[in-house]
Amino acid sequence: MPLYEHVFIARQDISNSQAESLIGHFGNILAENEGAVVASEYWGLKKMAYKINKNRKGHYLFLRTDAPPAAIGEMERLMRLHEDVMRVLTIRVAEHDEGPSIMMQKREERGDRRR
After folding, report:
1. Are 8 and 94 in contact (CB under 8 A)?
2. Which phi and psi angles does 33 have, rounded to 5°?
3. pLDDT for 14-58, tens place per residue?
4. pLDDT score of 109
5. pTM of the entire predicted model
6. Residue 19 near residue 85, CB atoms below 8 Å
7. Tell me, what's the pLDDT at 115?
8. Rounded Cα distance, 46 and 12, in Å
9. Phi and psi dihedrals of 114, rounded to 5?
């Protein structure tokens, strides 16, 4: 099955636990459509570059999935209809990276970017 990475932003006025429960909610949608969440991360409440729906901050969540395109389409449709989700980005990847994402790595582990 194809591999995907998703980043979505939830409203700032929900709690951390409610934001993390969105991962389980959308994971269940994938499971019902023969897909699976390989890994997930909660990046935290971060300030955005510009306002989205009158919000300055948002809860950033990251999913790595292994699912058929129909399941991804259904999950994206339901994400866009969900009242707590403000933005969604989905990218198809050839393979998932091992370990945590760049956002979760410590600055020392990232290496020198100026080379």
Report:
1. no
2. -110, 30
3. 999 999 999 999 999 999 999 999 999 999 999 999 999 899 999
4. 61
5. 0.85
6. no
7. 56
8. 9
9. -85, 0
CA distances from 8 to 45, 59, 110 (A): 12, 8, 23
Classify 21 as helix, strand or coil: helix
Q: How many residues does the chain have?
A: 115
pLDDT for residue 101: 80
Alpha-carbon torsion 37, 41, 42, 47, what sign?
negative
**Amino acid, res. 69:** P
The DSSP letter of residue 112 is: -
**Residue appearing with tokens 């866009």:** 80
List strands edge to edge, sheet with 55-66: 36-52, 55-66, 3-10, 85-93
Burial of residue 52 (number of CB atoms within 10 Å: 0-12, 13-18, 19+):
middle
What one-letter code names the amino acid at 76? E
Region for 110 from its dihedrals, namely left if φ exceeds 0, alpha if ψ lies in -120 to 50, beta otherwise: alpha
